[in-house]
Specification:
Elements lengths: L3 H4 L14 E5 L3 E7 L19 H20 L7 E12 L8 E12 L2 E10 L2 E13 L4
Antiparallel strand pairs: 1-2, 2-4, 3-6, 4-5, 5-6
């Protein structure tokens, strides 16, 4: 298992915006990340008051962070200079609400790459039930021109 401190050595996300708590499985092109959804999340008070539901966009972001970790773990992160940026989000489907108390399993697979562009498939699962699925692309860029 890879914990939050180790994750933060690879990806830049910190504080409330790090949406992966641990990596339980990893290969060169696949991973399973874990997000423990608590009632202390920054979105709980406003999405929705008295009935908090994790926003779908944050589920997709958690999948993307897991993918970013997997790729940067393999190719290196140039001392933290390489960042992953969304290029496309396709076929996003949400089929189960994610609420505080849930453990979100973040299954990703790299579908292919060309130069610094990577394409992924992601599925978020809670208690064996799919909560979301998405195809997305990201560019890994070090910001140098």
């Amino acid at each position: 298992m890879i914990d939050a401190k180790e994750i933060e050595k690879i990806i830049p996300h910190r504080g409330d915006m790090r949406l992966v708590d641990e990596i339980r499985e990893i290969t060169d092109t696949t991973a399973v990340g874990i997000k423990h959804v608590t009632d202390h999340e920054f979105w709980c008070s406003g999405h929705f008051p008295g009935h908090p539901i994790m926003p779908g966009v944050l589920i997709v972001e958690a999948l993307a962070q897991t993918a970013c970790f997997t790729t940067l773990n393999r190719i290196g992160n140039n001392n933290g200079k390489i960042l992953g940026y969304f290029v496309s989000i396709e076929k996003a489907r949400f089929s189960r609400m994610v609420v505080p108390g849930d453990t979100l399993e973040l299954h990703i697979e790299e579908l292919g790459s060309k130069m610094t562009m990577y394409r992924y498939s992601g599925t978020a699962v809670v208690n064996g039930v799919r909560a979301a699925s998405v195809i997305f692309s990201a560019i890994m860029d070090n910001g140098e021109k």
